[in-house]
Design goal:
Number of helices of chain A: 6
Shape of chain B: globular
Radius of gyration of chain B: 18 Å
Number of strands of chain B: 0
Order of helices and strands of chain B: HHHHHH
Radius of gyration of chain A: 17 Å
Oligomer: heterodimer
Distance between the termini of chain B: 49 Å
Number of helices of chain B: 6
Chain lengths: 141, 143
């Protein structure tokens, strides 16, 4: 358990340094939903190569690390209907709110943005209530 | 050069998500599950990420980005209904399966069919969002 916290801190530090590098070099905010969403709805057409390059690194580096470390497990539910509903909710929600855990959470809170703080409070609150309802009350996840 | 930096940033981001355990949905749901076997790892990840980023924001004062003309505009002080509704919908999906956009991409190579299904439906949701936003904005517009 203690090593989990330490790995969390180290991994979190890498995420923060990645966001810092993007900000100080390219002048951009490292928000996963904004970078991906801009490619999907066409709003990020002008800088699509940078978005695609970032997504490429995000996909490729963990793939290589997992290939060398002998596998990793996501422990994702096997219920396809729940996965599909969750995917739609995450896609619509993050684009309506203009940010997710990386954009509002990491990049917003670190500059004391009120929007980032409020968004984070709402998605953690909604996530907590959803887990309570669907796991402890309904028992479906 | 900006593309190369973006690729390196994506790689660091992905490595951080994997090392921190955020591609493991049980750790994320464990953090949200305050009435179950609560797992505080996500708080350490957030703290570890916010600290270097807070220093980076301080370093933007009076400077320019190395490869760009200007830094992002100051945060918008307006909250608005879309922020609250969107974050609530996002939180519900996040709680249901324990995946958010970054880890969904980072775990695609080892996440099996479920991970692929999540990513496809997430992209579909992102495609539908602008139309939904327009309808919501029309409803809230004064008549």
């Amino acid at each position: 358990m203690q090593s989990d916290w330490l790995l969390g801190l180290i991994g979190g530090g890498l995420i923060g340094m990645a966001a810092a590098l993007l900000l100080l070099t390219n002048g951009r905010i490292m928000g996963a939903s904004g970078i991906i969403g801009g490619l999907v709805d066409g709003s990020g057409r002008h800088d699509w190569t940078e978005r695609a390059a970032l997504i490429g690194g995000l996909l490729l580096v963990p793939a290589i690390m997992v290939a060398f470390s002998g596998g990793s497990e996501t422990h994702l539910t096997e219920n396809g209907i729940i996965i599909a509903i969750a995917g739609l909710l995450v896609g619509i929600g993050t684009r309506l709110a203009n940010g997710c855990t990386s954009g509002h959470g990491v990049c917003g809170i670190s500059r004391l943005s009120l929007r980032g703080i409020v968004a984070t409070a709402f998605y953690i609150g909604a996530g907590g209530l959803t887990v309570v309802l669907f796991k402890h009350v309904l028992g479906v996840i | 050069m900006r593309n190369l930096i973006s690729f390196v940033v994506g790689g660091l981001f992905g490595a951080g998500l994997l090392i921190s355990g955020m591609t493991d949905t049980t750790k994320v749901q464990g953090w949200l599950d305050i009435f179950g076997n609560w797992d505080p790892t996500l708080a350490f990840v957030m703290g570890g990420a916010i600290l270097p980023m807070a220093i980076a924001w301080q370093m933007t004062n009076g400077r320019k980005p190395v490869l760009a003309d200007h830094f992002p505009a100051p945060p918008d002080p307006k909250l608005g209904r879309n922020l609250v509704v969107g974050s609530t919908l996002f939180g519900m999906g996040w709680g249901l399966v324990g995946l958010c956009p970054g880890p969904a991409v980072a775990s695609l190579s080892f996440g099996g069919w479920g991970g692929a299904l999540f990513l496809i439906t997430m992209l579909l949701g992102m495609r539908l969002a602008p139309a939904l936003r327009m309808r919501l904005d029309q409803q809230s517009a004064p008549v």
